[in-house]
Amino acid sequence: MNRSTYIPEGTCSLSRIGIAIMRSTPLLILTALPFLFMTAPTAASSLPAESWFNQQGYVGPAGGRIIACHGYGCVRRMQISVDGTWLSQARTILRTGQGSPDAERRALGDVVRSYTAYLAASFGGKPDRPGSPPQMSGVYGQMDCLDETANTTSLLLVLQDQGLLTHHVVEYPESRGFFLDGRYPHFTAVIAEKRTGAEWAVDPWEKAPGQRPDILPLTKWRQDS
Question: Is-contact 216 200, C-beta < 8 A?
Answer without folding.
Answer: yes
